[in-house]
Please model this.
Amino acid sequence: MSYQSLHSSVLVLNSSLVAVDIASVKRAFCLLFKAVAQVVDVSDGSFEFHGFESWREVSEFKWENGLVDNDSEWVSTVSYEIEVPRVIRLLTYDKYPESHVSLNRRNLFARDEKTCQYCGCELPMSELSIDHVIPLSMGGKTTWENVVCACTECNKKKGSMTPQIAGMKLIRRPGEPLRNPQIKLKLRRKKYYSWKHFLNDAYWSVELQ
Model:
């Protein structure tokens, strides 16, 4: 059980139970409180749906009867403790997610699995930089196909050259991911295992934004 919960993520489904987004815990609780979403509680392969008040009652029952799971996370309020949901569904939203994945630092590091694309070292995000395969000075663009994660040493070695000129080789060809690359990283953690019920082969064919 943990109270370091506001930094966790919640999988958001549309009304047809198709994954469409990843939300912060704060955003998820706002949607539940406004009654535009429900908690999807996964237990033994079956789903139960709860509104905010229902989920609060379930949380209180677990808390008072010692049914708190070691991997659960909780938010403490003035009058009660409430469990952080792992999955919610929007009650009226039935659209499918957009196919384009935003090119930003977080998504790029997730796509490359926090690994230098030249030497293969896995490092914390703070120790990685973004490298343009074809340098901007040589006409390169900031696109999924031309940016990769690189450690400081490799980035310094490559400088403003292409990999070929620098005598370096990419471990994989960069490209735009088909779905939100952060999900792949999060599924490694036990607390997000329930997401797998909605991310099987059928759901993987739907691109996430």
Notes: The chain has two domains: 9-98+180-204, 105-166. Residues 201-209 have pLDDT under 50 and may be disordered. The CA atoms of residues 113 and 130 lie 13 Å apart.
